[in-house]
Specification:
122 residues, alpha+beta, Rossmann fold, two-stranded antiparallel sheet, 13% helix, globular, binds adenosine-5'-triphosphate, binds magnesium ion
């Protein structure tokens, strides 16, 4: 998928802040299939974004990557200014995030699954 979308938010004072969610160069492959191809995406706090595309175009993959349910092959995902997929090592260089780091940043993100009715009585 080649998801690049114009950011509808005009550069107002509020939007010069760090985006709540930032994808930079995010690539996800399943074998030979490249689902996310160097995806750049910013979502500001309070902004509502609809991701539209045909079945199989990678919408759920994008959300699963944001939830750390999928590892990405390239790029960085930031949540509220903090790298989700990476963490700084002792020298300040970004290295792939530990499971513990991912859990701590993931606490800021929630997802309702496509088949959300996991509990039939609810
Ligand atoms: N675990 C996996 N292993 C291999 N291929 C996968 C895996 N998960 C998803 N894919 C493939 O990645 C592509 C993107 O799938 P994804 O589920 O992100 O699409 P989608 O846009 O959410 O589709 P839908 O509209 O049907 O929900 C599809 O071609 C799918 O077959
Ligand atoms: Mg889906």
């Amino acid at each position: 998928m080649n998801l690049s979308m114009p950011n509808p938010v005009q550069p107002t004072e509020a939007s010069v802040e760090e985006p709540m969610v930032r994808f930079r160069g995010v690539t996800k492959r399943y074998g030979d299939l490249t689902v996310l191809d160097h995806l750049d995406l910013d979502v500001q706090a309070g902004e509502k974004v609809a991701i539209i595309g045909p079945s199989g175009s990678g919408k759920s993959t994008l959300l699963r990557a944001l939830m750390t349910l999928e590892n990405i092959d390239e790029g960085v995902i930031m949540v509220d200014g903090e790298p989700l997929t990476h963490m700084p090592d002792a020298g300040g260089q970004l290295v792939p995030a530990s499971a513990r780091h991912q859990r701590s940043v993931r606490g800021k993100v929630g997802m309702v699954f496509q088949s959300f009715n996991l509990f039939p009585h609810m």
